[in-house]
Amino acid sequence: MTNNQPQFDSSPKFYVGFCHLCGTGPLGLRVCGDCAAVVIVCDECDAAWTGAEIEQPPTTTGVTTLPCPHCNSDLFEPPAHWADAEEMQACEWLKQATQQNRLVVRNSKDSYNSQSD
User: Which domain of life is it from (predicted)?
Assistant: First the structure.
């Protein structure tokens, strides 16, 4: 028996908050496998944003696929993956948003597992 819902590789390594749509999902940084764009993706409901404006409606939401808002490649499928520290540092919109205190990047190992405490 197979699950029709595609699964991301593990959980996000870094996140920038929690989803205002579903109320529970950490907002991870996902890298497109084709165009290498960094996209904010909710790890629970799969809503996606192209930049720091996470209070706005998402650019797209996943059902059976999650198209990259930049090139339409599937963000569920490898080689798409959760961003690592080097990829985050190379992302200009993310640098600007953190410098302007619009987003705070947190390491998921240190933080969101204790969010419910």
Answer: Bacteria
